Amino acid sequence: MTTQLPPIELTRIVALALAEDLGRGDITTDACVPPNVMGQCAFRSRAELVVTGGAIIGEVFRQIDPEVRVHDLVLDGTRLAPGGVLARISGPAASLLKGERVALNFLQRLCGVATVTRRYVDALPSGSKTRIADTRKTTPGLRALERRAVRAGGGHNHREDLGSAVLIKDNHVAAAGGVSAAIRRCREQAPHTSRIECEVDSLAQLEEALAARADIVLLDNFDDADVARAVEINQGRAILEASGGITLERITKLAQLGVDVISVGALTHSAPAVDIGLDWED
User: Fold this and answer.
1) 7-22 vs 54-64: helix crossing angle, rounded to 10
2) 48 is catalytic
């Protein structure tokens, strides 16, 4: 089950999308569809997908016309075969037409993220405790929605933003004068409730990060042999996260090697939109 997006955030995101598409009105619909005509439509999958984004449908049409009703809504995380119905909407036909494209744009994007995430999660060995996590490589303005889609696909979320957790990257290390110095300074400044994560790009830096008592170490662009060696060196002292150059084909092997987290930017920055249509029903 996924957590709910804060209503104020959902309202803001949908309002921006509607202003973009409907800000100057819909001259086609207003010209050819009488206001008293009613209709019903079904959001239908054209390909196999993992469902998410039901709340978006409701918010899009709530802002356009409170008379529109959403029903037969499929739960987030559900696998849907081609031809399956994600949801139905009914109400004034003009209102359905005005919100169609915006609702579909959101659904196709978010279901795409959830579907790709599920492929990565499914690649984990049976019984594995390794987590598949997203990154901050999200579409500007849509991070909250895309992170929720990752959870719908069975994945986990990395830090929400720059203020939510300490993550020392390679450029921090360079600017701070080394791994040890960066970790020490962060530990002095960070709240006692915050873990310290440090990115390393070599086994030597891993040793240094462990000596400085990093809580989490991100193995950046390590090949499988170096990941195996890192797990051996670590001996359970820190949480190990593999990231960089992660492909679907590597997931099983990385989990078998014993990393705790595999973070994958492709869950959000490269997920293709899935094909969903809105079919008019009598």
Assistant:
1) 60
2) no
